[in-house]
Write a structure and sequence with these properties.
Chain lengths: 336, 335
């Protein structure tokens, strides 16, 4: 069992409340970096000086936040009304266990039992109709432990079975994990490990970091959607779990610089690192903000394909994570 | 001028693949040996007529809307994602051309297509004459980019082809860069990238140049076709000075300066208020601490189709207006 991965993915870090994740990262990365600072947005920026003569500035970026919930109000009967932070399919919510607030009070996203409905289960309730039940029947009691503005996350425990990891927040604790791993070895170039806040609510943390670091190159490390279910139609498919790191050609926010992309493809082939492409022109990552920061920054996105992202349970392959780390490492080491 | 427009519109340069356009423009403007030429990280082509005066940035975008291959099926048909604001009803059975010269036609799934609805791009495919996946893979790969194929048509003073948006702006700046500009202003002709997908090249190039005054040169809609939306812009009545569009409001000193310069030089102009859409000037206006920015537009019909249509008089007058603005003495003028 990868105990650090367990700790990292089980920690709570809904957009705007990334402190717990950040503290875990700081503790782990501290021995391997020269400087460490937190900027005004709350982004964590670790720096590791390169060993080479002619050093480029390379920024590795991953976001610390995850999709989750914020308590909006408390009903008279002690039920917590909530909003989602980041995009979550509301069909995955009912009946799921959550942890509320800093104290991680266990609760469940509740809806009337099937017995108390008259065919309502045919219709999908809106988020406003759902509530988090933490086991109270009275507002005053609930207010002793929870208040409006508290965050909640899915209460998923990390598990492994052979090559497969199961857990929550793989988007983007995998990126955070990869940066920490990359900090553990020496590089000839100067490396900036930047851990962003608020990606899931609008790529907000990355722009200020990119402006202040102003790197020559940036690599965004991500968790991306895998959908390797069988298709009837012979048409474009999502990346597949177990088939290697996912490289972005383009998405809604970004086109990979073609020279940089060709370089990465060549390195991947030479070093025999399995990689696959993301379906073009969909989705978006922090790269969208980074590549147009300042006078423009050559940027690349690598991601681990993960099934059912933004849900309580994701599945991913350890080999894909290793491929992402390997491709990032080889890219850094081979940049002139 | 027509030759420059024809040459530039025939090139395929979808967003992120502007190199061929940039190479052609660089070849044209390098005839003027006084110009400094460079490219930045985002691929913007920056041509400078050096001077000691105010920094003026003229921006026209090189990229065009297009198609990116996302899947090659076993029979060699290509599924694609659209790049930029493609109107799906415009492209069915259009000819397309890839950046490597491969040509094809856009087909649509007959069984799922309902003629009463605008189909989604998912229901379309590109046929490049390949008989199998391996056959197609010799010609294109995932990520390959195509644009509409150019068919240049002349109708008196009017011309019609693909990508007048915004090769017309590029052509105007080429013409201007090759002319003798009087005065001491530091003039940058910037041929920008990735406008159609989010004004991205303009953002980084204006950051790098940090001009005192910037003008985007682009196309705008017209209100002069049967039963069209109301708009006070017509073909042939002069270049349009933008007042407002979907992304920016031009500041009054900029509009006044443009109007005065046109009037002083006897150049016809129209005022443009565009309901939707925007230009590079929007990104430039809010770069750094803010940059005075405006737009000179070429009135154009049927924008984002294979048959964008404009009037050569508006183009020629636009060049005259841009030249007069580049030669203006800003030390006397508070703007």
């Amino acid at each position: 069992m990868n105990e650090f991965m367990k700790k990292l993915t089980e920690s709570a870090g809904v957009s705007g409340c990334e402190e717990e994740v950040r503290d875990i990262i700081i503790e782990e990365i501290k021995p391997y970096c020269d400087t460490l600072r937190i900027d005004k947005m709350g982004n964590l920026i670790a720096f590791k000086r390169g060993t080479g003569e002619k050093r480029k500035r390379i920024m590795l970026g991953a976001h610390m936040d995850e999709v989750g919930f914020m308590v909006k109000s408390i009903d008279d009967n002690g039920a917590l009304k909530f909003m989602t932070a980041g995009s979550i399919d509301r069909r995955v919510l009912i009946g799921k266990r959550v942890l509320v607030g800093k104290e991680k009070i266990p609760g469940a996203i509740a809806y009337k039992a099937v017995h108390n409905q008259r065919g309502e289960y045919e219709v999908l309730p809106k988020v406003e109709q759902l509530s988090i039940d933490i086991g109270f029947s009275d507002k005053k009691e609930a207010e002793k432990v929870v208040s409006a503005g508290d965050y909640a996350v899915f209460a998923t425990e990390y598990e492994e079975r052979g090559d497969i990891m199961k857990g929550k927040a793989f988007d983007d604790r995998f990126g955070c994990y990869a940066i920490i791993e990359l900090f553990k070895t020496k590089h000839k170039h100067d490396i900036y490990g930047t851990f962003f806040v608020q990606e899931e609510v609008g790529l907000r943390g990355s722009a200020p970091s990119a402006v202040s670091v102003n790197p020559d190159y940036a690599i965004v490390l991500e968790g991306t959607s895998a959908a390797d279910m069988p298709h009837e139609k012979d048409e474009a498919d999502f990346p597949k779990m177990g088939e290697g790191v996912v490289v972005t050609i383009s998405d809604r926010t970004f086109f990979a610089d073609r020279e940089f992309l060709d370089f990465v493809k060549r390195i991947g082939k030479e070093k025999k690192i399995p990689f696959q492409f993301k379906q073009p022109m969909i989705g978006g990552t922090d790269a969208g903000m980074i590549h147009v920061a300042n006078g423009g920054i050559k940027t690349m996105v690598f991601a681990v394909p993960s099934r059912y992202i933004h849900s309580p349970v994701c599945y991913a392959s350890k080999r894909d994570l290793e491929s992402m780390i390997a491709l990032a490492k080889q890219t850094i080491n081979n940049l002139k | 001028m027509k030759n420059i427009i024809r040459t530039l519109t025939e090139i395929i340069g979808p967003s992120s693949y502007e190199e061929i356009v940039a190479d052609a423009i660089e070849k044209m403007v390098s005839k003027n040996r006084k110009l400094e030429i460079k490219r930045d990280v985002m691929g913007n082509l920056i041509v400078r007529r050096k001077g000691g005066g105010k920094k003026i940035m003229y921006a026209a975008h090189m990229d065009e809307i297009g198609f990116m291959v996302k899947h090659i099926d076993k029979n060699g048909y290509l599924r694609f994602a659209v790049v930029g604001g493609i109107f799906n009803h415009n492209v069915i059975h259009n000819h397309v051309r890839f950046t490597n010269g491969v040509e094809g036609v856009i087909g649509i799934e007959e069984k799922t297509f309902n003629w009463k609805e605008i189909p989604s791009a998912e229901k379309m495919f590109i046929d490049i004459g390949a008989k199998s996946r391996s056959d197609a893979e010799k010609l294109v790969s995932i990520g390959s980019l195509a644009g509409m194929k150019a068919t240049f048509v002349e109708m008196g003073k009017r011309i019609s082809t693909k990508t007048l948006d915004d090769r017309i702006g590029c052509a105007m700046l080429v013409k201007l860069a090759l002319s003798e500009i009087k005065g001491d202003n530091d003039v940058y002709f910037v041929f920008t990238t990735q406008e159609e997908v989010g004004l991205r090249g303009a953002k980084t190039s204006s950051f790098g140049i940090s001009p005192d005054f910037a003008v985007a040169i682009d196309v705008t809609d017209t209100g002069d076709t049967p039963e069209c939306h109301v708009m006070e812009v017509s073909l042939g009545k002069g270049p349009a000075i933008k007042v407002m569009d979907g992304g920016m409001v031009v500041r009054k000193p900029v509009i006044d300066f443009m109007k005065e310069t046109a009037e002083k030089n006897g150049i016809p102009y129209q005022l443009e208020i565009l309901a939707g859409g925007t230009t590079d000037a929007m990104a430039i206006q809010t770069t750094k601490e803010g940059i005075l920015a405006g737009v000179i537009s070429v009135p154009t019909r049927y924008i984002h189709s294979q048959a964008e249509t404009c009037d050569m008089d508006d183009v020629e007058n636009g060049v005259k207006l841009l030249k007069a603005m580049a030669e203006a003495n800003f030390s006397k003028k508070v703007m």
